[in-house]
Write a structure and sequence with these properties.
The chain contains 18 helices and 20 strands. The protein has a 4-stranded antiparallel beta sheet, covered by helices on one side. 46% of the residues lie in helices and 14% in strands. Among the domains are: 243 residues, GROEL, domain 1, CATH 1.10.560.10; 137 residues, GroEL (3-Layer(bba) Sandwich), CATH 3.50.7. Strand 11, helix 10 and strand 12 form a beta-alpha-beta unit. By secondary structure, the chain is of the alpha+beta class.
């Protein structure tokens, strides 16, 4: 029997094209409108109810969109933008959605006038190239070693967040942590891996001011035998293993047949000798602390406590790698292969402390740690979660600056300069692409306009005054003070943005807008549930009208 073939008529495709465009644009605008009010220092907070009934209070664009359950495919791809931005540069998650939404909004007029989407996309791509050139022109190099400037930059980037009320605290923590884990590869290359080597440990209780960056690591573990093993050791020699210090179990089920009663004793003795042999090989390097990712038997625990060695078992691999980076040890797979160079001697203090009801192990005061732990204290879990989100953004900003030490003006000044320059250039563009290019230039003004709206000032007056100041691409450093809504020199107020974040925001927003404009049909491959006894259903094509009718945002 021949398989049924789905035939799309030309008239249907053409008819649904503009409707699908309108559906996509409306969905994208709806997503942008949700988080528009969270841009800037005077932004609103959103309270989110997650699937398990928990509450999240935040104004982080990515955190809000992550919790949304949206059916529309275009809206889903907009949410993906925010996640991409967060993974790539860690900041600008709200700006990218607002900008992409505006780019699609200004394109709607051209779709209505029967412009071909490819023409609009070509104009947008040209606008993107020119906007990145403007960024390069107005960017200002920064000395990474100038702590005051770096602090100012990180502060201005997290000034829009909830923790800005705690002053320099979060900026200090972020800067200290990223400075510790930075590794120079030579040739001006510097690697800062904040995901692998910076652990944020949140412990409810105490005050936020008690938060600190440890020159080393901490983890939620106690020694194996608390009464017999030391909980405080100065200048410890640390051995890290990822093999078990217990008798090996058979890979598959093994049956041993014992003929004589004495054989049972021999078998047990073999096990004990095996474990003793392992312990002897480890103890000949005179360690003070032995940490393993796997199990540690009672007999091994006895040998270690007899030798005055503190042991910790079943540690996470990620924690073990951090300890290795902090104290200079090497994680060893087999105790037989241990060498003197594998022993970590860089730590100044090993200590187990009780915080609240739990024991935490601290390996701190390291000589040249390349991994660290940020210890956060605070009144409640909700507060700590929000502080952690803000800290991640701050660390990402510090990392971006260390990787690419360039600044651009904040407070909407960059977008206004880009907009003014593109408006000037649009007069030299020939052909039909001129109008979408000019519209893209106008779309950049969405960021300063939203900032002004969120400050509660007169938007039209403020925007007119700003456009006058930026008329010929001059006054690149004139923007909005996000707290008061006053037009000001952002250089004096130290309102800066990282070059990497701005460039990534522009690229992601415009490329995503182009991709959504190129979609002219939504073909649904989801099978509808059939009533029992009904025959096979025909394949369905979802036109723009259906896409519009779908519920975009949950009630």
């Amino acid at each position: 029997m021949q398989a049924p073939v789905l035939v799309l008529k030309d008239s249907l495709t053409r008819e649904s094209g503009s409707k699908v465009h309108h559906g996509n644009i409306q969905a994208s605008k709806a997503v942008a409108d949700i988080i528009r009010t969270t841009l800037g220092p005077r932004s609103m907070l959103k309270m989110l109810l997650d699937a398990s009934g928990g509450i999240v209070v935040t104004n982080d664009g990515n955190a809000i969109l992550r919790e949304l359950d949206i059916a529309h495919p275009a809206a889903k791809s907009m949410i993906e933008l925010s996640r991409t931005q967060d993974e790539e540069v860690g900041d600008g998650t709200t700006s990218v959605i607002v900008l992409a939404g505006e780019m699609l909004h200004v394109a709607e007029a051209f779709i209505n006038k029967r412009y071909h989407p490819t023409v609009i996309c070509r104009a947008y791509s040209k606008a993107l190239e020119d906007s990145l050139e403007v960024l390069d022109k107005i960017a200002m190099p920064i000395d990474v070693k100038d702590r005051a400037k770096m602090l100012g930059l990180v502060k201005s980037c997290i000034g829009t967040k909830f923790t800005s009320q705690f002053g320099d605290l979060i900026a200090d923590l972020a800067l200290d942590a990223t400075t510790i884990v930075g590794v120079d590869h030579g040739h001006g290359l510097r690697e800062v891996d904040i995901k692998k080597y910076i652990k944020v440990e949140k412990i409810p209780g105490g005050q936020l001011e008690d938060s600190k960056v440890l020159k080393g690591v901490m983890f939620n573990k106690d020694v194996v035998a608390p009464g017999k093993m030391r909980r405080k050791i100065l200048n410890p020699r640390i051995i890290l293993l990822d093999s078990p210090i217990e008798y090996k179990k058979g890979e598959n089920q093994t049956n041993a047949e014992l003929v004589k009663e004495e054989d049972w004793g021999v078998l047990l003795k073999l096990e004990e000798e095996y474990i003793e042999n392992l312990c002897v090989q480890i103890l000949k390097f005179k360690p003070d602390v032995v940490i393993t990712e796997k199990g540690l038997s009672d007999l091994a625990c006895h040998y270690f406590s007899k030798a005055g060695v503190s042991a910790i078992r079943r540690l996470r691999k990620t924690d073990n790698n951090r300890i290795a980076r902090a104290c200079g040890a090497v994680v060893v797979n087999r105790p037989e292969e241990l060498q003197e160079s594998d022993v970590g001697t860089g730590a100044g203090l090993f200590e187990v402390k009780k915080i609240g009801d739990e024991f935490f192990t601290f390996i701190v005061d390291c000589k040249d740690p390349k991994a660290c732990t940020v210890l956060l204290r605070g009144a409640s879990k909700d507060l700590l979660n929000e502080v952690e989100r803000n800290l991640q953004d701050a660390m990402s900003v510090a990392r971006n600056i260390i990787k690419n030490p360039k600044l651009v003006p904040g407070g909407g000044a960059t977008e206004l300069t880009v907009s003014a320059t593109l408006k000037q250039k649009s007069s030299s563009i020939e052909g039909i692409e001129k109008w979408p290019y000019e519209a893209a230039a106008l779309a950049f003004e969405a960021i300063p306009r939203t900032l002004a709206q969120n400050c509660g000032v007169n938007v039209i007056r403020t925007m007119t005054a700003l456009q006058g100041k930026h008329a010929n691409g001059e006054n690149a450093w004139v923007g909005i003070d996000g707290n008061t809504g006053v037009i000001t020199d952002v250089k004096e107020l130290k309102i800066w943005d990282s070059y990497n974040v701005k460039a990534q925001t522009f690229k992601t927003a415009i490329e995503a807008a182009c991709m959504l404009l190129r979609i002219d049909d939504i073909v649904s491959g989801i099978k509808k549930k059939q009533a029992p006894g009904a025959g096979p259903s025909k394949p369905q094509i979802e036109t723009g009208e259906d896409a519009d009718n779908e519920q975009m945002i949950p009630e």
